[in-house]
Amino acid sequence: MQLLQTTFAQHLDLSPTQIDAILTKPLNQVLESPELQHELNSLDTDLLRQTLPTAGTVLAQELPPFYNWLKHELHVQRVPDTPEHTTKWVIGFLNNQESLTNLVNLHRPVPRLALEAAVPRLVELFAGVEDDRVKQEWQKAIAALCLILVVDAREQHP
Fold this sequence. Notes:
Blueprint: H1 2-11, H2 16-23, H3 27-32, H4 34-41, H5 45-50, H6 52-72, H7 84-94, H8 100-107, H9 112-123, H10 132-156
Helix pairs in contact: 1-9, 6-7, 8-10, 9-10
């Protein structure tokens, strides 16, 4: 739990107090909150779009072991076979073709504790990106999206 909050505080422009408050709110309030809107609006979507090939390479390389960890260590039942769906979803989101609601619905079957344990590791998939600006922007984007997933998981399974 502490690692989860540390991950959010490290990669988002939110204090630990703000993160704690967000994690206790219902999803609909969080989606409309100025804090989340600020985080999403502050993403450098041009940089993210320009570096989609980098992200695609990272995801293609790092997601299979991550999925294996989810399946075998966290016992998540429904784990993708390949990283392609994640890459396509990220591209769709950045191109305004995928919604946060769809992201939430896709992840509802993931048990809350597994989801919370997975967030820090997922954000760190981009730690090996050499360009610090690119690395930080991708980690921020993944952290912001994961924050929404954790809020929903906590609302669904208090």
